[in-house]
Amino acid sequence: MSSQNSIKENKIKYVDNTWDFKESFTKYSNHGFHTYPAMMIPQIARRLIEMYGLKSKVLLDPFVGSGTALLEAKLHKNFKKAYGIDINPLARLISKVKTTTISPDKLNQEFSQLIQRCTSGIKEINFKEKEIEKPDFHNIDFWFKPQVITDLAVIKKNIQKIQDQDIKDFFLVSFSETIRRVSNTRNGEFKLYRMNEIQLAKHNPNTLKEFIKESAENVKSMIEFYSEANKNCAIIVLDEDTRLKTSIGDDEIDLIVTSPPYGDSRTTVAYGQFSRLALQWMDYAKEEVINIDKVSLGGIPTKDLVNSLGSPSLKEIMHKITEKDPKRARDVLSFYVDFDKCIKELHRVTKQGAFLCFVVGNRTVKGIQIPTDDIIVELFQAKNHYKHHNTFIRNIPNKRMPKQNSPTNITGEKLNTMNEEWIIILEKQ
């Protein structure tokens, strides 16, 4: 399936294992800078660009996350501009750093000086028993051991001394990833769960060593990226909300590649909890940090189940969930109400003939799988003229997501979450 003509000859919705990329290396270029929940693997973004964006000049990812689509646009010769939007400040920071070219000479020089300052600073604190200013946020001693807090404070202080903002942000991303690795949180979790006492007793990380290792890997990737990147492609990461009118112009976008949030962070992907410790260490405002999941799509349940959304599939599924649990039904509905607001904005900013590519998961609520792929197609087609070209169904071999959850919070009672993804291809007519 190398051409759009061959794609159109196939049926609309089908399983295609060529989208699995099971054995592919997903951390090439700057894609390995920072872990992030439910990351779109770069091979998918790249393939979507090659299939539907060869004539495109301006790309948009309205739910940018860790910036996979933006980085692929930056690595592609055709694009002049790529926009990313996200309400999560950590997502915006990661996306900005991954797509910003930095001179290798300047980066190596700053890295060498930063290591020296951090090493001498930690030695001075430990041997001369000097004090260093530490952040004061709730439960810091619960999530970090005393020596780790001291070492992180020294590293943070010395990163802040860097004058070049792009380089400072670069090392803040390494710092953020280090925070997660040296914290008392359980490995592989999205939500904030502390290690048990046995694990904590064995947990004595060398914070500076972890930071240097993470930074060195990112420096190496950045040097390679510097020579590969399309420096004529401007990356613009917006602190805006796709549910509202953004600063993007009318009919400006000719390709959308995105993986929207799944909705209901309590049982699926808690982006806010994942980001919280790093954002607290980097002094983001308390309200901004703790409200990420609440202000995300579907973060606030609807007041009732009355809606005018033009999706028969949603109407059917809402009826089934309501019969089991009306409260959970309002949680579910809130996501699609919010997503419908996004559709209005995406319709405004896209050109006629633009392709819109959505990588979605069909989550399960109360034992009922929700056909988000069908609902999205129906919501777009309810108000505007969009052609549904294809929906490819892929297995998720490696995506950073929980394979099971506990929707009832009853010990031992778990259900499978999302082991497949649906890649929806729409065209604005």
Descriptive notes:
By secondary structure, the chain is α/β, with parallel strands linked by helices. The protein folds into 2 domains: 13-92 and 230-281 and 291-428, Vaccinia Virus protein VP39 (Rossmann fold, 3-Layer(aba) Sandwich); 104-226, no CATH class. It has 16 helices and 12 strands. The strands form 3 sheets. An 8-stranded mixed beta sheet has the order 1-9-12-6-5-2-3-4, sandwiched between helices. A two-stranded antiparallel sheet has the order 7-8. α3 links the parallel β2 and β3 (81-85). α5 packs antiparallel against α10 and α7 (146-159) runs antiparallel to α8 (165-182). The chain is globular and about 70 Å long. The relative contact order is 0.15.
